[in-house]
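Researcher: Please translate sequence to structure tokens.
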Amino acid sequence: MRIRRSILLAALAAAAAGALAAAGCQPAYRPMPYMPKPLTAPQPLACHDAIGHITSNKPWVLGGTCCCTPTAANFAIHRNNGTVDKSMTYEAYLALFKEKGVVTDLDHKGCGNVCTSGPHVLLGGKCMATPAPGTWMYERITYGPHTPLTADDAKAGHAPAAPMTPYGPYGPRAGMM
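Model: Translation complete:
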């Protein structure tokens, strides 16, 4: 009986010593350094309804980076800026979106570009709904990187966008997928 008890106590002591030794061998915890975002935003690469129209941007459907909702007022702005041909009508302009199968804020809103038509057109999808401000999709659409918009862009050597992950383009597995 004493032998069993001493063997049991020795085993428990060895297990406790092993647990303490293993806990003591861990590397010291160092928190990640704090990296604040810059106070000023970079220049937007694309415009949409959440940031307003950039006058030099051509409509996405014509090979540009303007993703503002194709309303009649927006079409008039494009005609005045010379980014749309003066002979084009508003109906013909809307037909270009329908031909490409693109859904806009005129069709649906609030999907966050993760609907059945998603991702956003600038990322190779068919959804052109306005991204929600403050999300990684908003930052990705507004500031890039974007996929090549046309075959000409791909021939010109523009790099494709960073891979998307379940956590967004800058998530913990961004380089592993």
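Researcher: Any highlights?
Model: The two ends are 59 Å apart (CA to CA).
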